[in-house]
Design goal:
115 residues; mainly beta; Immunoglobulin-like; 5-stranded mixed beta sheet; 4-stranded antiparallel beta sheet; 9 strands; elongated
C-alpha cells in the first residue's frame, strides 16, 4: 500500500508531526463494503473514527516516527445514503484496521415477483 505524507503542526500531542494518508483496500461484499487500512504502530486506544455529515474520518496516532517526527494517520471518505451508518463496525489488530459498512435495507438486492 502506498501513502501520501505531509508535515503538519500541532496535530499529535501538541507537537509537529507527519500526517500520513494510508491507502485503503475497498472490497464490495454481498451485505456491504469492507475497507482495510494499514496503520502500523497503533492500538485500539489510538484510533478515532467519526461520521459527520456523511463524512467518515479516520485518525490514528502512531508510535512510529518518520523524519524524526511522530506519525499521524488520517483519511476521510464520503458515504452514500446506501450505507447504514448506525451499524458500521471496526476491528483493529496487528496494524490493520478493518471497517465493515453494511448496506441499508433499501439498498440490498431483492427479488421482484412477476404476476
Amino acid at each position: 500500500m502506498s501513502e501520501d505524507m505531509e508535515k503538519t503542526a500541532g496535530k499529535h500531542s501538541g507537537h509537529e508531526c507527519i500526517t500520513v494518508r494510508p491507502a485503503a483496500d475497498v472490497t464490495e461484499i454481498p451485505d456491504g463494503v469492507e475497507i482495510c487500512f494499514e496503520i502500523p504502530g497503533t492500538g485500539n486506544e489510538d484510533i478515532t473514527l467519526e461520521i459527520k455529515d456523511k463524512l467518515l474520518t479516520l485518525k490514528a496516532c502512531s508510535t512510529l516516527h518518520r523524519r524524526g517526527l511522530p506519525v499521524l494517520y488520517k483519511r476521510s471518505f464520503y458515504l452514500s445514503d446506501a450505507v447504514d451508518t448506525e451499524k458500521i463496525t471496526a476491528k483493529a489488530a496487528d496494524g490493520l484496521l478493518t471497517l465493515f459498512l453494511p448496506k441499508a435495507e433499501f439498498a440490498k438486492a431483492h427479488k421482484i415477483e412477476v404476476k
